[in-house]
Specification:
The protein is of the alpha+beta class. The protein contains 2 helices and 11 strands; from the N terminus they run αβββββββββββα. The strands form 3 sheets. It has a 4-stranded antiparallel sheet, with no helix packed on it. The longest helix has 21 residues, at about 10-30. The protein starts with 11 loop residues before the first helix and ends in a 5-residue tail after the last helix.
Length: about 180
């Protein structure tokens, strides 16, 4: 909100301060009014296209994986929405294919990887977002309970913050998060 301020009785310091605030607001405004939209579209069995529409321009990113989940959120708290894509693939450190989360950002109107996870904490079943947090359904290492773990951005990648809940069945986990199975 911008409001008029009567500075006729203010000191020179106040005038400079107000001028600096106006300059900062004018500098930041073009970045805060940008309209952007991430979408994803399946091309065939194993090819998905992530798209970013930003002020009339479109950037795309090919995802040659099975995709099981798509969401958007500002996970890294920079004020710009990111795309979270659940993919089924192997990684450099975990050679068995499994579910992973890839996060993409809007970098000057272009899609760029922000974080391509090799693994969260446990074996990932599915995820959703809550604000800027990723809530993951994971299987305990002993193959027993399903847990809901909360992850938040920690400089480079998602870091575990807390265990939210634990359930005996996968269906209870999905009900708790109020999401559908893929």
């Amino acid at each position: 909100m911008v409001r008029a301020v009567d500075i006729s009785r203010q000191s020179a310091t106040s005038t400079i301060l107000i001028g600096a605030i106006v300059a900062v607001v004018c500098f930041l405004m073009p970045f805060t009014v940008r309209a952007q939209l991430f979408t994803i579209e399946q091309q065939n069995d194993t090819l998905w296209i992530l798209s970013l529409e930003n002020n009339g321009n479109v950037s795309t990113w090919k995802l040659p994986y099975l995709v099981y989940r798509f969401a958007t959120a500002d996970v890294n708290n920079d004020g710009i929405e990111d795309a979270l894509v659940g993919v089924y693939t192997k990684s450099r450190f975990f050679t068995e294919p499994s579910r992973r989360v890839f996060i993409f950002k809007n970098y000057h109107g272009l899609i760029r990887p922000l974080w391509l996870s090799s693994r969260l904490g446990g074996e990932l079943v599915d995820f959703t977002v809550d604000g800027n947090h990723l809530l993951a359904i994971e299987v305990m290492s002993d193959g027993g309970d399903y847990v809901i773990n909360d992850y938040a951005w920690q400089g480079f990648g998602m870091g575990w913050t807390r265990r939210v809940a634990s359930f005996k069945t996968i269906d209870e986990s999905y009900q708790f998060l109020n999401i559908n199975k893929p």
